Amino acid sequence: MVKFNHMSLPVANFARSRDWYVGNFGFEIEFDQPQNRMAAIRDHADFTIFLQEPQGALAGEKCSLSLQVDDVERKYRDLTERGVVFEKAPGRHFWGYGTELRDPDGYLVTVWDEKSMREQGNG
């Protein structure tokens, strides 16, 4: 099973964008991380958009996609065996536990599973 779970949207001001989506479209605030210049908003179907001011290594980053799988370690092994190149092996990252790769157009794709995220914690 693969589930499109959330996406990251680079913004100039996370608080302004958060308030705009909440006030104009009824998104709910899932969480705020002012220290990371980021907020997560969720629609009524449980789809989350991370509104983030790109900093450091993320500066210049376009949108990114997050895919939830049954087992991130197994998916990493399977795709690696098929020749898919990953930027980061499964491990703890600032966003939690999982792996990262790029799609053919260069968009960042994060891959994670619920069990590993829960057990290995948020980075």
Summarize the structure.
The protein has 123 residues and is α+β, with helices and mostly antiparallel strands. Helices cover 24% and strands 41% of the residues. The protein has an 8-stranded mixed sheet.
SSE topology:
Blueprint: E1 2-10, H1 14-25, E2 28-33, E3 38-42, E4 48-52, E5 64-69, H2 72-81, E6 86-93, E7 96-102, E8 108-112, H3 114-120
Parallel strand pairs: 1-4, 5-8
Antiparallel strand pairs: 1-5, 2-3, 3-4, 6-7, 7-8
Describe what you observe in this structure.
This protein is an alpha+beta fold and about 120 residues long. The chain folds into two domains: about 1-60, 2,3-Dihydroxybiphenyl 1,2-Dioxygenase, domain 1 (Roll); about 60-123, Signal recognition particle alu RNA binding heterodimer, srp9/1. It is about 25% helix and about 40% strand. It is built from three helices and eight strands, in the order E-H-E-E-E-E-H-E-E-E-H. The chain has helices spanning about 15-25, 70-80, 115-120; strands at about 1-10, 30-35, 40, 50, 65-70, 85-95, 95-100, 110. Strands 2-3-4-1-5-8-7-6 form an eight-stranded mixed sheet. The two termini are about 25 Å apart. The mean pLDDT is about 85.
